Amino acid sequence: MSLPLIQKLEQFTRLSSEDKEVLRQMSMEGVRHLDAREDIIREGDRPQSLNLILSGWACRYKHLEDGRRQIISFFLPGDMCDNHVFILRQMDHSVGTLTPVTIAQIPRRRIEEIAGQHPRISQALWWETLVNAAIQREWTVNLGQRDALERIAHLLCELFVRLRGVGLTEGNSCEMPLTQAGLADATGLSVVHVNRTLQELRAAKLIVLRGKSLTIPDLTALQNAALFNPNYLHLDREGRHLDANE
């Protein structure tokens, strides 16, 4: 199976066999396995490397002093926890696991070396950075303008489309390990409100949740209910002019 990172970056441009081998080698550096509910890096820590999610789900979050948590983004297989985070003196947020996770911790020197020697990879990594910024903008719209049903439906659409892009869906189904508390922390809703909203989506036959699996019987219908436009994910190979010939 292709490395999720490669599948993700090839949504921007077709990589050469050499590019892919470089990414495979990079993904084997500093491999760590973490359990669910562990921090990969904490607010206040000094970042020394880039963390690449090889498997499992993680999130970026902030804690208020009274214990409340806001999830700011989700990290899926193939995601990098900020391409240039190592230039910061200290972290202003935390990154924690939601499920058992395997990561590669890639030193700064290695990233700089790859960026300098492999322009297609460098361009693709900049694309990933810009897509992440676009996702954050869409989350701001989600919190500020969409109602509860639209928020939850929009988030489920986004996660499904992102997972599909790295080959982690089966037909109209995908893994969904998020708890109702996790959905609440990501959408600014109470757990009670999330529960009620999921029931509405089920009753409308827009989703099926069984255990840790999500099935979307009609993706177009769910997208319409969510006012979801996938254009902010930029999945139409905008870097096709950089495509490798091999």
From TrEMBL:
Keyword DNA-binding assigned: yes
GO molecular function, a single term: DNA binding
Keywords tagged on the record: DNA-binding, Transcription, Transcription regulation
Residues covered by the HTH crp-type domain: 146-220
InterPro entries according to UniProt: cNMP-bd_dom, cNMP-bd_dom_sf, HTH_CRP, RmlC-like_jellyroll, WH-like_DNA-bd_sf, WH_DNA-bd_sf
UniProt keyword Glycosyltransferase present: no
GO biological processes: regulation of DNA-templated transcription
Protein name, per record: CRP-like cAMP-binding protein
Organism: Muricoccus pecuniae
